[in-house]
Amino acid sequence: MIRIQNGLLHTVECGSYQNGYVDIENGKIIGFGALADAPVFDGEIFDAEGGFIFPGMIDAHSHIGISEEGKRWEGEDCNETTNPVTPDMRVMDGFYPFDIAIPKARRAGITTVNACPGSTNVIGGQTAAVKLYGRNIADMVIKTPAAMKCAMGENPKRNYGESGGSTPMTRMAIAAIFRRTMVEAKRYMAKKDKGDDVFDAKYEALIPLLKREIPMHVHAHRSDDILTAIRLSEEFNLRCVTVHTTGGSDIIEEIARAGIMPIVGPCIGPAGKPETVGGNLAMCAELARAGVEFTLTTDHDVCALWMLPYFAGLAVREGLDEQAAFRAITLNGAKVCGIEDRVGSIKVGKDADIVVYNGHPFHYLTKTRMVFMDGKQVD
């Protein structure tokens, strides 16, 4: 058993404690609260020295490990740019655990990501919720598939229409390809349910999506693309999460009415393409005022994953409540990947992924003092 104590404990889900503690056994959280109320303890003690005790942060949309830092085409495995429909592609089959970006992120307190295919294809493949520690991806995965990556708008158009002279050339074609694929997948699933001896890896991969066992994470920047993603999800009764959601300020009411939990970001720095012009993190406060829970992303390697807490801090500067910012980089990231039973907050029974900072995690001068994953100190 180990205890982390003597720090400002933010559980995210179960309150905060000015001088708190967390008890860990066999990689799981077994207790937490005010240190003054802590039971007698006979184990190893780690002193937070008055710093922040925080759950490991989560980025719900990342290309770390599959678009490797410092590499060229050798480490670029995001997009299978040979077919706009590749749902049978699995991120874990291209994930490199020794990507040099991983320890940088972990040392900043990011312990879990949803590693995703890129957005070149209309249906790009299966994401994987991955812990950022280990040498074998099979041991690092929390859940796979965690979602089905899809894309609307400019990226599929650019790769196939502008660059390749093939379909999709238009937003109409993107929606048509998605719709046609879903209809074909439903017919395939019906044949399987009747007991027909059929197998097609492409449609097999879409069955969990059609059964609502996993969501679709849809790359969508412009407001019309966000609405198309919502409309298609309703047409086929799919769980929908919009990724980036850059133009969401124009359709806050529609997002709220759809009941989705969008992934927001990066929204900082120069706009890299027409779809990202006007993106800013002030939208986070707008979403919160409309009652919309959301999560934040760096879209690594668009922005470095270790910058995630600073994104949350910038959102607070632009009017977001601090508690909402805490949720946006922890619990909500877990929820959109379906792993909130394991990670995302400090709660009894969850994995002991805990970070100790010497100051507020959003402050640029703060340093990470300790990182625990599954109860083991790793940094």
Protein described:
The protein is an alpha/beta fold. The chain has 2 domains: 1-56 and 344-379, Roll (Urease, subunit C, domain 1); 57-343, Alpha-Beta Barrel (TIM Barrel). The chain is built from 11 helices and 18 strands. It has helices spanning 101-107, 137-140, 154-162, 171-193, 201-210, 223-235, 252-258, 283-289, 308-317, 322-328, 331-335, and strands at 2-10, 16-25, 28-34, 44-47, 52-55, 57-62, 110-115, 123-126, 128-131, 141-143, 148-151, 216-220, 240-244, 263-264, 295-296, 354-357, 368-373, 376-377. The strands form 3 sheets. Strands 1, 2, 3, 4, 5, 16, 17 and 18 form an 8-stranded mixed β-sheet that branches. Helix 1 (101-107) links the parallel strand 6 (57-62) and strand 7 (110-115). Helix 4 crosses helix 5 and helix 9 (308-317) runs antiparallel to helix 10. It is globular, with a radius of gyration of 21 Å. The two termini are 18 Å apart. The model has no long low-confidence stretch (mean pLDDT 97).
Largest sheet, if any? 8 strands, mixed
CATH topology of the largest domain: TIM Barrel
Low-confidence stretches: none
CATH C-level of the largest domain: Alpha Beta
Q: Which structural class is indicated by helix and strand composition?
A: alpha/beta
Task: State the CATH architecture of the largest domain.
Answer: Alpha-Beta Barrel
Average pLDDT, rounded to a whole number, is 97
Strand content: 15-25%
Order of helices and strands: EEEEEEHEEEHEEHHHEHEHEHEHHHEEE
- The CA-CA distance between the termini, in Å, is 18 Å
The overall strand count is 18
What is the CATH H-level superfamily of the largest domain? Metal-dependent hydrolases
H/I helix tally = 11
Radius of gyration: 21 Å
Q: What is the molecular shape? A: globular
The figure for the number of domains is 2
Q: Give helix % range.
A: 25-40%
